[in-house]
Write a structure and sequence with these properties.
Helix content of chain B: 40-55%
Largest sheet of chain B: 6 strands, parallel
CATH architecture of the domain at 43-303 in chain B: 3-Layer(aba) Sandwich
Largest sheet of chain A: 4 strands, parallel
Number of domains of chain A: 2
Number of helices of chain A: 13
Radius of gyration of chain B: 26 Å
Shape of chain A: globular
Order of helices and strands of chain A: EHHEHHEHHEHEHHEHHEHEH
Distance between the termini of chain B: 58 Å
Strand content of chain A: 5-15%
Bound molecules: iron/sulfur cluster
Distance between the termini of chain A: 30 Å
CATH superfamily of the domain at 43-303 in chain B: NagB/RpiA/CoA transferase-like
Oligomer: heterodimer
Strand order of the largest sheet of chain B: 1-10-7-4-2-3
Shape of chain B: globular
CATH topology of the domain at 43-303 in chain B: Rossmann fold
Chain lengths: 260, 481
């Protein structure tokens, strides 16, 4: 199957390890991954902040870049939700574009959808000997309805202890520009999310979206450096679940958490 | 004509939120209360196998009402008038208050009892009556608490949600006329008993009652009030004159349509299968109930809201408050931060539409959300609140295109860079290089302080740094791509 990887702008710059992990997983399964270099950003930040005019060129660009592929996969619930849920709305008054969106949107998958629904695999032969908890991000949960797909993938990982996250379905408080425009409320929501994560005793919190993870990871990082807890002590780390799935017994996931 | 009254935020949301965030007692009260109702709602909604179909019906009936609103209003007026009621029309809050004040004056009384009603709060009726020398007594327990405390409601359904039992006991002890302080504990039964004694006297002496309505049926001219305590029913039966203040979107075409909403509303709002009291009245009848009945139909920005094809779905709202109870933002700051009698997710889309986005600080309300979608999922009439939030943000951005703004410049620049492969790759390289000195030899992957505008981020959390190698650089290094 000709699978195109949409790595997303945040991943490209800040979390390239997630993209590398997706490549690793799909190639291990025997698929050829292509990375169309024309890609950039799905336009979510623009559209959700009200900048529709600025988002539209990016919508067109995404459609141009990926139209020819059988399947497009992105390791980001919110970017896939943007394509599947918001593109049809944004393209509504341009019939030509709307038609192309209608064709492409159903072939655009979040990683766990591609693996479980399209490729029919849950056991990727991964190994990750740590205690992990999973945060289902809002777009994955309520827009894409990913359900337990990521959890099924994680449960099949050798030596991984999956622990339930209390209040898992509550928003972490990221919300794109919300985190800056309403930093106070965002911080309060983040504090509660970090409390829940820490209460599990997990070493890693995983999710399907690096934007939310950057926010949660940033909160956890600040906590781990609190005076008295010993500056560089490793706290709980935020990690994209793809990076967990990429690790095997022979090649452990080395990039996890820092992705540098 | 845009709406007026208690639907205008005086302070930008982030600022108002900051004040509330600093109150840990408020936060824990809100958390406990919203989670309790939330869990109850989930349980009773889960009992109905046809819940989704009911939601779809509720939305469809309300959409039909909005499509045919002028005709249905005419029909309602004719039916209500034929049944002996008098119908009045008010374009905004001031007009509505003036009509009600005149009607109360005509009866010669200076005290009225009130049934909990969002419409009267919206138009600021109590304040207007007080200015005219008329005392309005709230008979809903929570509303009474708020009134005695000289406070504003913090929730659509549970106006006193921000107080706990101990705080309520103190308010009663201090403010309730004639209360027996020595017998007053913070037990719910003791508090309810004190309120009952206080209100009984009012019910027996009041000659005028003021209500809102949950539904108004066009076919028959009937008004419907749904409540839990029964105080409303006392107000609806004892006084000689009844004045009902009703938003024009409250209509339902036929009596049969009620069936859908009497299932949707109680389960969504209080988590009950059925609400304890449903009162319906159609005009007047000799020797039974009020002998004078006035219905004030209030527009107050609803016609303008209806004119927006995306935003109009906000007018489907049946004020169940389910969206408030599931909203993570509301849970942290409570209702006052929204500056309107309509708080939470529905307030964030309704208030700026009713008043126009530039009234007071209402322009900040569509940003008071992470777009997490919990409100849409909970809404019994399927109002896609996140969709409307984004739509209103867009309307705001487009309306102010002429003015310079740092944000628009940044958004425009980013869009320009991102739509070209070379520009984009160069920008990624530049960002990575710019971050390199912050990474302290690759040891750190987070940074504690960033300069403005990113300082908004590092105020509450560390920021991740761009990686040493972008993904596309890595990919190119593999000898492909
Ligand atoms: S928007 Fe929906 S959930 Fe919120 S109060 Fe209105 S009807 Fe209820």
């Amino acid at each position: 199957m000709r699978i195109a990887l949409f790595v997303t702008c945040v991943n490209d710059l800040v979390f390239p390890g997630t993209g590398r992990a997706v490549v690793e997983i799909l190639e291990r399964l025997g698929h050829t991954v292509e990375f169309p270099a024309e890609q950039s950003c799905c336009g979510q930040m623009h559209a959700n902040s009200g900048y529709r005019a600025e988002a539209m060129p990016l919508v067109r660009r995404f459609v141009d870049t990926f139209a020819e592929y059988e399947a497009v996969v992105a390791p980001s619930g919110s970017c896939v939700a943007m394509v599947r849920e918001s593109y049809p709305r944004l393209a509504a008054d341009d019939p030509g574009l709307a038609e192309r969106v209608a064709e492409l949107a159903p072939r655009t998958y979040e990683l766990s959808e591609l693996l479980v629904d399209v490729l029919g695999v849950t056991d990727l032969g991964a190994s990750f000997p740590h205690r992990v908890t999973y945060h289902p991000t809002c777009h994955g949960l309520r827009m894409l309805r990913l359900g337990d797909r990521p959890l099924r993938l994680l449960r099949a990982v050798r030596d991984l202890e999956l622990v339930e996250l209390p209040g898992a379905e509550e928003c972490c408080g990221f919300g794109g520009t919300f985190a800056v425009k309403n930093a106070g409320v965002s911080g309060a929501m983040l504090a509660d999310k970090c409390d829940s994560v820490c209460s599990t005793g997990a070493r890693f919190v995983a999710a399907a979206d690096n934007s939310c993870l950057a926010h949660i990871g940033g909160g956890l990082s600040r906590r781990s450096d609190r005076p008295g807890t010993g500056g560089d002590q490793p706290g709980v780390r935020a990690v994209h679940y793809a990076e967990i799935l990429a690790g095997t017994v022979r090649t452990p996931a080395s990039t996890v958490g820092g992705t540098k | 004509m845009t709406g007026t009254g208690n639907i205008v935020a005086r302070q930008p949301f982030p600022q108002a939120a900051k004040v509330r965030l600093a109150d840990p007692q408020l936060r824990s009260n809100l958390r406990r209360a919203t989670h309790t109702i939330r869990d109850k709602r989930l349980r009773v909604v889960g009992e109905l196998p046809d819940w989704e179909a009911l939601r779809v019906s509720g939305a469809a009936i309300k959409d039909d009402v909005l499509a045919r609103l002028p005709d249905l209003l005419d029909q309602f007026e004719a039916a209500a008038t034929a049944a002996g009621a008098t119908v009045h029309w008010a374009r905004d809050a001031e007009e509505a208050c003036a009509v009600v004040t005149r009607l109360v004056r005509q009866t010669g009384t200076d005290e009225v009892v009130k049934i909990k009603s969002m419409a009267t709060q919206e138009i600021g009726l109590n304040e207007a009556l007080e200015a005219a020398g008329i005392a309005a007594v709230e008979t809903d327990l929570a509303e009474l608490i708020v009134q005695l405390a000289d406070d504003q409601p913090s929730h659509i359904l549970v106006p006193a949600i921000h107080y706990n039992r101990r705080q309520i006991r103190d308010i009663f002890a201090e403010r309730m006329p004639g209360v027996d302080v020595s017998a007053l504990t913070d037990e719910p039964a003791a508090l309810a008993e004190a309120a009952r004694r206080h209100l009984r006297a009012k019910f027996l002496s009041a000659r005028v009652a003021i209500s809102g309505a949950n539904f108004a049926i066009a076919e028959t001219g009937t008004l419907v009030v749904v409540e839990s305590e029964g105080n409303g029913r006392m107000c609806l039966t004892l006084p000689e004159t009844l004045i009902s203040v009703v938003g024009i979107e409250k209509l339902l075409p036929t009596f049969g349509d009620l069936e859908v909403f009497l299932q949707l509303l109680p389960r969504s709002s209080t988590g009950e299968r059925m609400n304890p009291y449903t009162s319906m009245w159609t005009g007047v009848s000799d020797g039974d109930g009020p002998q004078q009945m006035h219905i004030v139909l209030v527009d107050n920005g609803r016609t303008e809201t209806r004119a927006d094809p995306v935003g109009r779905q906000a007018l489907r709202c049946i004020r169940c408050s389910a969206c408030l109870n599931v909203c993570p933002v509301y849970e942290r700051v409570g209702g006052h931060a929204y500056g309107s009698v309509y708080p939470g997710p529905i307030g964030a889309i309704l208030s700026p539409q009713m008043t126009g986005p530039d009234a007071g600080a209402n322009r900040t309300l569509p940003y008071a959300s992470t777009l997490c979608g919990a409100c849409f999922e909970a809404c019994p009439v399927r109002i896609d609140i996140p969709e409307v939030l984004v739509h209103l943000r867009q309307r705001g951005v487009d309306a102010h295109r002429g003015r310079p703004s740092a944000e628009r410049t940044a958004m425009g620049a980013m869009s320009w860079v991102m739509r070209d492969r070379r520009r984009y790759a160069a920008a990624l390289r530049a960002a990575r290089r710019g971050a390199a000195p912050l990474r302290l030899g690759g040891r750190r992957d987070h940074v504690r302080h960033l300069p403005w505008p990113l300082s908004g981020w590092t105020g509450t959390r560390d920021a991740p740094l761009p990686a040493a190698q972008t993904f596309r650089e890595w990919w190119a290094g593999r000898g492909r791509g």
